[in-house]
Fold:
Amino acid sequence: MTDVLIVGSGGAGLTAALKAREKGLSVTVVTKTLPTQAQTCMAQGGINAVINRGLTSDDNASALPSAGLTPHLVTSDDNASALPSAGLTPHLADDNASDTVEAHIADTLKSSHHLADPNMIEQMCQNAAKAIEWLDSIAVPFSRLDNASDPLQSIAQRRLGGASHSRACYAQDYTGLKILHTLYDRCIESGIKFITEHYLLNLVIYRGLTSDDNASALPSAGLTPHLVTSDDNASALPSAGLTPHQVTGATFWDIRQGKVIAIEATNTIIATGGFGELYHGFTTNSLGSSGDGIAAVLRAGGTASDMEFVQFHPTALLDSAILISESARGEGGYLINHEGKRFTDELAPRDEVARAIFSQIQAGHHVRLDIRHLGKEKIEKLMPQELQLCRLHADIDPVKEPIPIMPVAHYTMGGIEVDEEFKVRELNSCYAIGECANAHIHGANRLGGNSLLEIITSGIQVIEYIANRGLTSDDNASALPSAGLTPHLVTSDDNASALPSAGLTPHTQNQINRDDEAIKKIFTKPNEVNFYNKRKTLGRLMYRDVGIIRQTNKLHEAEMYLDEIYNKISVMGVGDKTRESNQNLVEFLEFRNAILLAKCTLKSAIMRQESRGAHYREDFPIERTDWQKHIYCRLKDSGVDLSTELTTVVNDI
Amino acid sequence: MNISIKRDSKTESFKLQSTSPITLLSALYDIKSELDPTLTFDAGCKSGVCGSCAVLVNGKEQLACSYKYQDADLIEPLKYHPVLRDLKVDKNKAHQTINRGLTPKHNCTSVKTPDDEAKTKIQTDCILCNSCYSSCPVLAVNPDFLGPFTLTRVWRYLAGEGQRQGKGQAQDKGQAQGTAPTGGLLDKIQVNGIWDCTLCGECTVACPQGIDPKTDIMMLRGESGKAGYSDPNFGNMDFGTPSFGTPDFS
Ligand SMILES: Cc1cc2nc3c(=O)[nH]c(=O)nc-3n(C[C@H](O)[C@H](O)[C@H](O)COP(=O)(O)OP(=O)(O)OC[C@H]3O[C@@H](n4cnc5c(N)ncnc54)[C@H](O)[C@@H]3O)c2cc1C
Ligand code: SF4
Ligand code: SF4
Ligand code: FES
Structure:
């Protein structure tokens, strides 16, 4: 029994791991790849924080619900209490000198289109400087300015789209990479155990006395029935200490060994990243961003919300979908159509530019990004990476030719519905942080630089909440008949079969058995339809009809196609029947999750008859106050169940 | 176009449909989805930054996602890594060298000025793709060698700090030997570390990120010398350790 099980080793997971360790909690981090291969490494632009006002002042800190930020975050430089907190005179001439936490909050709120929770935004923005200070203290090599002032204030900042000030702290063009690797180094130093190449299958849930009794009492009465079975010998468990629908760990597919294992934990944190991969071939996201954690929560009776909001980046290379950063337009690049004419304001907000480009593509025209007029010298100096990417992936030289581009899926705002403490609403002892969670920070559109900030601040906070609850493994261990498995001792080398299965609680063993059965079935079922082809079809379909510009007829058409793919899953399988290191199987499991989430996105997109942020309906182009609400997706035995609920009205600042 | 892929002990040839040049990674996926679903490899970001996909192409380390394949290319798994299946290798042992290089806990500090930043900018571009490890001849004779990326990582932390500590580096050895909790980075790289490197520069050639572990290792030797460490092999020449590198400089 580990105190904290963290699934996912991106910036969110590793931050939580380090913070949990600092609190003396035992931590196990599990990832389906190797730790530093998480998508966080891809972030280039930066991480938002207002760092110019002598840090967040004490009065701000006390305004936070989580007043418990660990004291060592406040260094002696942080002489905030000595400073008058209001109206510090900025001493830098740059525009970031006049930046304020309030402006950061206002920018984020604006971008969210009234769909975010102002308290959550406020909390994140107010914790931002402390998050940067912490990253600095663990040696993240931020780019620096040549000002001999306060170390924090020497961190260089750049302006990203939608921001009123230069607010994004960066480490050259490798912000995410350098944050992730530094977090990893600190995790190693802290002795945090990693279990790598283990794929999350399902959450393990204690469902109360007898499964039948309690199933109806669960908010998620609509669980796919096979998750609650009668062989779930739950009645053998003493009920004390565990409440129904309590998450007590998770099951994983040990990719190398080819077997199902379970890890029992007092607290489970899901940090598995977004689901951009359902736009396969049309996304900047990594291949593994299939939303596995969100799908697992849905299967366990939890809720996914705001799934219709997917941010598209205006400029990625045609075909390869490799990101060409905003700086190309920022420096004065033109977007031109097939006639070589400009057709839009290149510096408008991301969603507007993306729509303008997509309209051209819909009309059958190619769109290209022309930076030739900037001149060879400038291009080589300012955009060396872009030059290289264009040469490699598009076989063109941007100095001589315009770059063929398309807008592609980039960030998924929706995800696991969590409360203000990042706890999954329907499940106890289970939390979700980072891109997989919907903590109501980004609303209908994410502001560039805010997701890296979210993964760090939520990783810090979630541990505060867990620690404040005072749950250590001892509390629950005694309630379990046999707390035999110490997961933090299990390494991937460990022969899982050597563990006495008797060490696991019956409901955990039952989940292992169910998952084992399910995987056996995949190995034996007919493999008549090639899912790799369907993965491509899914990507094209979602991009064309459930992408940047949406419309009723097209959405319904897409639903038909999607159902068709969905119904074929029974005759899709794996051609590779080996159990060990089976990439084919893992990709199939990912594809199944992507399909499920595609359904959520599609159904929500149909339901939302308005346009808001990243969700644009050609037939309902106006944002409507009566749609200022969320769409929630839950799993019923027959597909995806939707419900809506009003949010509190947000005042525009 | 054809490419050959080493699978276990045999080499299998695949005919590729695509006429326009595409990345090796796309080709591997084409093979997997159209020709043979059992072909096994690692991939993630598709854009050269997650470090998953390094393989050998005609004997040289390449990121599959950043290499455009050519007719008759021979693709093999990385060297000095146990092969799990086809092109997928076990990187755990190689990554364990980071544990050896960085633990027990070292008190690290961050860069604070543009000068500091410049000192570790390249080193912190590392994507942990293991290409350098695969290229290093020392690993053929000494599997316990810390290897290039870990030594670069250690230099990263020392270089960022050297500035502020100045001559205080000399304390490093003392601290380490006195088991001081804060110091000791240099102490961890003396055995199976900097002195075992032959300075052949293969790692520098192999790195897709333009990192130069060889020079970092030379810097670490310099710092070690200043701190009172010396090449242990000087006293034991008779043992003929590989540390003297290739005598043939042609
Ligand atoms: C090209 C690109 C550029 C970006 N640039 C910026 C930027 O400049 N600024 C910014 O703020 N944001 C940016 N973003 C967004 C930001 O990078 C992500 O939102 C953020 O890094 C997500 O972090 P995370 O920790 O939530 O998840 P991730 O980093 O995606 O990590 C997910 C982890 O979960 C693991 N996992 C997933 N499924 C399973 C499973 N089934 N079993 C076990 N483990 C699993 C993965 O292996 C991985 O370790 C960018 C994104 C992309 C794609
Ligand atoms: S220079 Fe040293 S570390 Fe690099 S490949 Fe040669 S022997 Fe290995
Ligand atoms: S130093 Fe270069 S080759 Fe070695 S792991 Fe890092 S990026 Fe790869
Ligand atoms: S797939 Fe990430 S480096 Fe190649």
